[in-house]
Prior knowledge:
This protein is mainly α. It contains 9 helices and no strands. It has one domain.
Amino acid sequence: MKKTILGFIRLFIGYFVCAIGMVMTINANLGVSPWDVFHQGLGNVFNLPIGRASIIAGFIIIFIDIYFGQDIGWGTIFNMIFIGIFVDFLMLNRLIPIFNGFFPSLIMMLLGMLVLGYGCYIYIGAGFGAGPRDGLMVVLTKKTNKSVRFVKNSLEIIAIIIGYFLGGSVGMGTAIMSIAGGYFFQFAFKTVKFNVAEVNHRYIKEDIRFLKDKFIAVEKGEV
């Protein structure tokens, strides 16, 4: 129980760090992130705000994860909900500064990508499953034996292309993040000697199986 509680604490710390990194890239004002280009495009098609489009995209990507064999954990579900909540909290309370100059904004964006990489390390390492997009990165890293950098860059470039043709906006920062994002993630993971392919996650199906076995044991009078 203590291990589980500490794991969930780590999970939510990771989400908060990810939210800080995301807000840093947003406040840099150099262009939305690659996935947000996709969310914008999806929102344009279905006339939805970007936050709701992001949730819908998350559900779609979960099904893609399952297709490729990536199991779903509680962390996958919580990721879609709480990172958005933390992002709104940081932005509404203006806890992270906004820069208008090009070079301060560029530094903010680059640091944001690095912070986001460490945030992903913290929450994925908790072992409750990766978020929908990170889960796709993890399962494709395992299946292709390619580097995190290569897989992440490839996914984000695809997201930009689809999002652009759906009407999403692309800025200079978007291009930088799509190219450099994978390098920053790989650097962050290497500094803490973290290999996403070696993480043993606890998935929802395992908890359901555990509860089912407990229920059967109670019915048989074995507990």
